Amino acid sequence: MIQFDPSTTISSDFGIFGIPATEADSKIILLPVPWEVTTSYGSGASHGPVMVRKASEQIDLFDLETGKSYEDGYFMRPYPQDWKNKNDIFKTKAQKVITLKTELSEDIKTINQLTQEVNIACDDMTQWVRTQSESILNQNKILGLVGGDHSTPFGAIQAVSKKWNGDFGVLHIDAHADLRNSYQGFKQSHASIMHNVMTHELKPKKLVQVGIRDFCEEEYDFIQSRPDIKTFFDLELKKKLLNGTTWAQLCQEIVAELPQNVYISFDIDGLDPVFCPHTGTPVPGGLSVDQVFYLFEAIVKSGRKIISFDLNEVSTGGLNPDEADDWDGNVGARVLYKLCGWSIISNRTN
Ligand SMILES: [Mn+2]
Fold first, then answer.
1. How remote is the CA of residue 150 from the centroid of ligand 1, in Å?
2. How many A from CA of 52 to the centre of ligand 1?
3. CA 190 – ligand 1 centroid, Å
4. Burial zone of 50 (CB within 10 Å; 0-12 exposed, 13-18 middle, 19+ buried)
5. CB–CB of 184/97 below 8 Å?
6. Is residue 231 part of a domain?
7. What are the tens digits of pLDDT across the range 28-72?
């Protein structure tokens, strides 16, 4: 247990929420992944870890719902500057591909060459995330990946699946279905993460999606074809709310679809854009922070266990972190704090 002295400050290189913990005495280990190579619209998600970490220092540690869970220790690993540098190089190449395709360029050789380089770099990132994730899970700690765009947790979900022998479900909160079979030629696009997860040999036994309101027909057909995917479309949830069904009842329906062990993959754009105005691909509609926090509580109160999680797509809207609006990082840090707190409680009791 962390004996906390509020006057202590943490290193500027690692740690989070102002908690003076080390990796060794922390139950939750956060892995920052500053990567947004295939980002297609707004940019800045690679700054997510810096934004969230900076905002995290303003959060009061005692929490009405999760009490002093932080005493079990939350630690963020040092910022991987080498991956940020690599991100910047390969994002430029990916943007070149997108530009050439938009201009209907006939330079197919260049397009194919650059696309292949980007795909290899994304595979390398996923492999690195998987190795890092395994090193956290093998210490019987809870992993929390902080992206980056939504392609970043693929390796983390593989590591979780290996550790739990596939005996878990993914709760996917997002505006987008992310079930595209590659996007703009990139196999590991942020728009393909759940397609990649659900077609991998280390797949979870269930994918439960909440808040989805942007998807193509191919993705809709994919959902219909898979009994192991259950999607709660945002429009259907909102219609039920408007017809008088309570959020508590809807949360029971969502939770009932989940197996005992739950991995939460949280794209910040699942929230109403009011809470994430600078995220890369905002969509009107979505969940409130209160609804999401209520859903977390419902999962844990049902006796299910949050085994690990990720938070991604918190973004500066293309600016450098020191120029960006603090709001997106502020909301992101609060969502992350609740994920940490409920994970601790669910692992104590369930
Ligand atoms: Mn997503």
1. 5
2. 18
3. 6
4. buried
5. yes
6. yes
7. 999 999 999 988 777 899 999 999 999 999 999 999 999 999 999
